[in-house]
Write a sequence for this structure.
């Protein structure tokens, strides 16, 4: 990864040198340019900046998983020259440190959401009972504990989404005071919709027959589960790169289905569902349903063009959770 970044930075330096010699466009007529890494941030910006004339660009629009994304030379140039760059700030975004060192816009504003939210809002990756531990190589147990990382999937908390939208509003307003009123009004409307969605989650999950989820997959929904006091068991943690579950893990999750009388095993988008099917087959009833929820980690441009949006995805997720808990 470091080698790739170095190559891209060399290409970036050459490209920026060429642009500098060409004179560029009149900065007074230049639109405000916002670059985001992932879809949820892009969608929040789009809603807060509605009816204002700005350019919004999302880097990760090719369906590549958030954790394995690698920037192109064109991506690096867009980051370097934008007015506002917004990203999550977790382990998967370590490449950004090098990208920002070569920024050509000295007035660029950067919004690192981990920094903006602060430690009190962030949660570390949690290894729950029955979950496969990620291979830490030659680290001893104490070192492995020190390697614990923050869970990056902050966007899956509707409550955190409200906080982030207000920080996006403030960042846009500081760069474009002429449209401050628009950003404030749009943010108020959008966060009201998020608050309504939060209330739906609270009421629906509060009335559910069960309060435990079983995932035959990674579990990126820790923030959401903690918001609504849901219990969960899963094969892997949310940021895990492991793909093969042991016999013990399969047996444990199958036993939980039977013990708790659950009728569903959940997976996230893109799953081949093989593990979920194996867990169900290992259970006593063998008739649990497989339900897919969307963690929005791999969104395509085609989906964006078809009106894909954060609130509708989270509403569909709520319906999926309601079915799984019934």
């Amino acid at each position: 990864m470091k080698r790739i970044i170095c190559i891209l930075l060399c290409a970036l330096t050459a490209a920026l040198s060429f642009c500098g010699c060409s004179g560029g466009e009149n900065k007074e007529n230049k639109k405000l340019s916002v670059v985001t890494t992932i879809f949820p941030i892009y969608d929040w910006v789009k809603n807060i900046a509605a009816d204002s004339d700005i350019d919004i660009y999302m880097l990760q629009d090719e369906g590549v998983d958030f954790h394995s994304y690698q920037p192109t030379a064109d991506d690096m140039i867009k980051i370097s020259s934008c007015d506002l760059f917004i990203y999550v700030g977790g382990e998967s975004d370590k490449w950004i440190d090098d990208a920002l060192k070569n920024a050509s816009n000295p007035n660029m504003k950067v919004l690192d959401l981990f920094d903006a939210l602060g430690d009190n809002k962030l949660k570390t990756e949690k290894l729950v009972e029955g979950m496969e531990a990620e291979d830490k190589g030659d680290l001893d147990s104490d070192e492995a504990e020190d390697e614990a990382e923050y869970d990056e999937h902050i966007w899956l908390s509707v409550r955190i989404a409200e906080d982030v939208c207000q920080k996006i509003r403030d960042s846009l307003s500081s760069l474009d005071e002429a449209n401050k009123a628009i950003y404030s009004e749009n943010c108020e409307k959008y966060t009201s919709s998020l608050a309504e969605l939060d209330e739906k989650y609270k009421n629906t999950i509060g009335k559910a027959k069960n309060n435990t989820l079983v995932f035959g997959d990674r579990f990126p929904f820790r923030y959401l589960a903690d918001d609504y006091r849901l219990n969960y068991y899963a094969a892997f943690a949310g940021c895990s790169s492991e793909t093969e579950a042991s016999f013990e893990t399969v047996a444990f999750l199958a036993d939980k289905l039977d013990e708790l009388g659950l009728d569903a095993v959940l997976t996230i988008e893109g799953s081949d569902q093989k593990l979920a099917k194996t867990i169900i087959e290992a259970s006593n009833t063998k008739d649990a349903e497989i339900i897919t929820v969307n963690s929005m980690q791999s969104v395509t441009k085609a989906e964006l063009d078809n009106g894909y949006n954060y609130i509708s995805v989270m509403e569909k997720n709520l319906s999926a959770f309601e079915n799984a808990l019934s």
About this structure: The two ends are 44 Å apart (CA to CA).
